[in-house]
Automatic annotation (TrEMBL):
Keywords: Cell inner membrane, Cell membrane, Ion transport, Membrane, Metal-binding, Potassium, Potassium transport, Transmembrane, Transmembrane helix, Transport. One of its GO terms (cellular component) is plasma membrane. The lineage of its organism: Bacteria, Pseudomonadati, Thermodesulfobacteriota, Desulfovibrionia, Desulfovibrionales. Belongs to the TrkH potassium transport family. One of its GO terms (molecular function) is potassium:chloride symporter activity. K(+) binds at T112, T113, G221, T316, T317, N433. This is Putative TrkH family potassium uptake protein. It is a multi-pass membrane protein.
Amino acid sequence: MRLGRTLFVVGAIVCCVGFSMAFPLLWGLMRGDAGALPMLQAMLTTLLCGGALLLGFRRSSQDSPLGHRDGMAIVSLGWVAAGVCGALPYLFGGVCGTVTDAVFESVSGFTTTGASILTDIEAVPESLLLWRSLTHWLGGMGIIVLSLAILPFLGVGGMQLYKAEAPGPTPDKLKPRIKDTAAILWKVYVGMSALECVLLLLGGMSLFDSLCHTFGTMATGGFSTRNSSVAAYDNAYIYWVITAFMFLAGMNFSLHYRLLSGHAKDIWKDGELRFYATVVLGSTVLIAWNIWGRHYDDAAEALTQSAFQVSSIITTTGFATADFEQWPAFSQMLLVLLMFVGGCAGSTGGGMKVVRILLMLKHCSMELIRLVHPRAVRHVKLGGRNVPPEVLSGVWGFFGLYLFCYVATSLALSAMDLDIVTSFTATLACISNIGPGLGTVGPAENFFHLPAAAKVLLTWCMLLGRLELYTVFILFVPEFWRK
């Protein structure tokens, strides 16, 4: 692994984070709020750190193209660096009292988790809240993918970064040059964000709230500008707009590109999309039936609340229009199961990913048929094509590692005297990048009360979930560092 070039590229990523602070800084200056100075201090500090890495390792930038191991290291170190630098506005602004809290909030933003330690969100200056939501939007499509779109010096080695950062079993490359693929994905992302922002403005939201909630929706993040999240607006139109865009953000973004390219007929042929839509529709109907007459007398309201929460949970967004901890046990259990599923591969959503669940179900079905017909030769297929054995092996390996991390972290939290429900759902909420859980970290609570050690552990889980486990764990394998 080329450590010098790795740190050079990490420096470039840090500079990207620093320059992105200009938007909330300008907002704060125009509004004259108390967050402008902390944003300026954080921006200068971040650019100084990034510039130091660029200058210190500039000679290494001419090394041979990035390899697979270089990509893994850059992605992991880049996300950690972004999380640390992103915490500076909270520290300088006095929003978070400790480094642990500030890094937790920052990593939660960049990983699009949406778990928060803020107890009074509405008291925070607008510029800091805008930065908080902007970290969602940047992390949603991926800091690395953003770098590939705007930093041409990454060259051919950029594919290694894309493969290490892109969610799902296999990355979906739309163009021969990875820089072009990244640019296309970002154009779709920006276009959809602009459309949602306009629709929210038409629903009566202010420009500030529209921007922040658009950032949280398209990134499937969940940070809101209100203490009671989206429920504060009590507006069915806003609920349905956000529900629709959460569903779209949970889809593979390459499908949006195909739609815009005039290949709409091919979209429904995608097996993952059909399975995703079926799960969302089925869960929405079941929960609406379960809460109608118990918590909502009006069927339309029950359907609205159900559709919003199902879309929010399965896409790992984490917005809330209701305290679903008060819903019947059946609805709570179904929502918890959806936390495991997550969004589609190639989406901004977290979780296991729909395609992995689908492949595991297909594989299990094939094994059952093989027991009945031992001599039959069958293959797992997706989209009419055979799935290579190495992909299936990777899916089951990911599933095993995911369960191991989930159980180990839950046990560790329970050892810190957290109750069982909180331990299990807090872990699930962070490793699947969802945000709210149940117990003392439910949709009406936050993570502020947790011990510092628990916050550190959950911060680690957020990074693991966003980078799909392997990218982080590979750094702890001795073979990775050997030439």
